[in-house]
Amino acid sequence: MTEKLTGNERFNAEAASWDSNPSVHEASTLALKSILEHLPDIKTPNSFDVLEIGCGTGLLSFNIAPYVRSLTAVDPAQGMINAFNAKLAAKPHVRNILPVCAELSDPYDGRIRLDPLNRDLVQNLPSRRFDLILSHLVLHHIPSLEDTFKMMYGCLKKGGRVALTDFEDFGSEARRFHPEAKIEGVQRHGIRRAAVKELLEMAGFRDVKVETAFEMEKWVEEYPGAGVVKGEGGIKMRFPFLICMGVKDRDD
Ligand SMILES: C[S@@+](CC[C@H](N)C(=O)[O-])C[C@H]1O[C@@H](n2cnc3c(N)ncnc32)[C@H](O)[C@@H]1O
User: Fold this and answer.
1) Could you tell me which Pfam families the record lists for this protein (predicted)?
2) pLDDT at 120
């Protein structure tokens, strides 16, 4: 029987082989495209300080880094951050990313205080605030979206935004996104438009929009427990993904 791992254990175990799954690359590429379409002003060089929650091995992070001033990339699984750091070490020209191993709950968390571009200069600041918060394929793993959206709100500057992408809970078939062996640590089978909109508004966000970002085909198990190998095998199913956007329109 395959051992079922949950939470950080699961992602620590999967980190070394995460990038060998073609479907996670495709999802990150499509997420980047949607983020750039929804935030045309991000293309202004070097203007955005970005916080990414649940960065994993950095598939979205490395793709978005050229468009932003700085990227603080946070993940609670040390294995994922180790894989991220190994990739970063192989790209010495990329200097605007700072990977951090943390499960954030406090906007004043000292671990996100450093500016990736000036790591020695800002250590005395009480906090650091961001222009944009991203998270891709992460919301379905987060126990309390209510708490996380409040934390995100606290991490933003006035005028800062969230652009969060994840697959949609479109009904009972959405459960098939994960193979049975990986379902235990999953908090929800995708995100629901109305629920996310309401929670973002409750956290204080304005101009909240939750829209279809893209659709993607993915290999799923033919029947529960049949297994898929590194994102391939079984049968193909189409999954809708949402982009969840909101603006912080006031100071803390
Ligand atoms: C499905 S992976 C996605 C990783 C990456 N964003 C990607 O697309 O390749 C989910 C990631 O979320 C992280 N994660 C799980 N629970 C989290 C939480 N409560 N807060 C932040 N990140 C979390 C995991 O460690 C994992 O790296």
Assistant:
1) Methyltransf_23 (PF13489)
2) 66
